[in-house]
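[stage:ingest] chain + small molecule (6-O-phosphono-beta-D-glucopyranose)
[stage:ingest] validated
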Amino acid sequence: MNLPADRLLLFGATGDLAQRMLLPSLCALDADGLLDNDLKIVATARSEMSTRDYRDFARAALEKYLPDHRRGGVAEFLNRLSYVPVDATTREGYDALATEVGAYDKGLAIFLSTAPSLFEPTIEGLVHAGLAQGNVRIGLEKPLGTDLASSEEINDAVAKAFSEDRIFRIDHYLGKETVQNLLALRFANMLFEPVWNATYIDHVQITVAETVGLESRVAYYDDSGALRDMVQNHMLQLLALVAMEPPTSFDATAVRDEKVKVLRALRPIAREETVTGQYRAGAVEGTAVPGYDQELGKDSDTETFVALKAHVDNWRWKGVPFYLRTGKRLPERVTEIVVQFRCVPHSIFEGRGASTKPNRLVIGIQPEENVQLSMMAKVPGLDRDGIRLRQIPLDIAMPDAFSGTVRRIAYERLLLDLIEGDQTLFVRRDEVEAQWEWIDAIRTLWEREDIKPKAYGAGSWGPSAAIALAERDGVSWHDE
Ligand code: BG6
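[stage:predict] done
[stage:export] tokens:
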């Protein structure tokens, strides 16, 4: 049984993620009394600064990124922080770091949010400083490699010092409330599971659309592209949660055992099942924006959009396509899963002039958290000219259904789980490697077939070929 750690060590503590997500999340958890009184947070990064400087830095980040209504307790939170500069590539800083961390009776949780090239030397430094013993667990932020080989290398390096039950690979989508709600929907209701299969489901769509462009991550993104940045991790995790068999319990082993079976059952993508795109200048939400290569300052073949038609080769999903698409500079920010059911086998209303449409379940993950089931209903009336049926939604808006509860960002939950040692919402090594294997095969296909991204205007839903990918099968993307 894990005890909540009494030390938290943040690598990459001056980075963008720390400012935007980690510090605000920790401060909010603290203000809500969810951090132990004796939890001390040691921050580290390469920059030379004192604890006092770092507290000022953290205060500025909190002022910028903590929503107004969660600003309580900042001063108390800052008192938990101390800072030790470490150049992760040399051994020197680690002894000072170990001294600052001091004794941790209950456990030490480490959060590594640094460039992947620093993972290996950091692990060695931790071992050298005695910061990798049995009650130390380590959280790893993406990117965990750029392909299967580099990911194995990182995993091997971490495994030399930490057993798998102490490694917490982060995919922040798993910390999102509605993503977990998908499990509640599937496995806490009798209604869906009996029809959650190829007999009743026509296809599934998963969309992760963003309006942002490159932001400040020019070098990272251009080396990565949408396939590795979004599909390899977040989208495949969503797919696994939609497609997995019911786990026997909501615990780390049971859930991850089922997810990995899905990931291993993914059929390699064929030539005609993939479309890539790169945005050109256009307008997003009414604002003119430059094209990708203009933002980048050079020509590039990196894809900012991917659409795929995937298949899970098992009994449950035989013949059910999973259409996936993600992109930057799309018309709106939306993450959703659409489960399209089949038509009724025989419509008794046809002879009376009414047509039926198949049911559709839309699980909105962001920005709206909602679940919408479209149903057929009769339009009221005496029907002298025939029966009229219309599709109407059964609509659950989560914020309304649960008003008064705090909506927490993904990192609050994930940091707390790391501190407390619960691995259920973290990705296991075999999952990451199955994800990479499938992604690597797609990249090999692109190279072999010389598939280059097609242009799409910023503010559109990607290249027209992405629409054709679905329409060839008589499927329309859910774009409203
Ligand atoms: C990150 C990607 O993992 O997820 C980013 O690197 C992307 O490119 C981000 O913008 C999206 O996260 P969210 O939570 O805003 O959907």
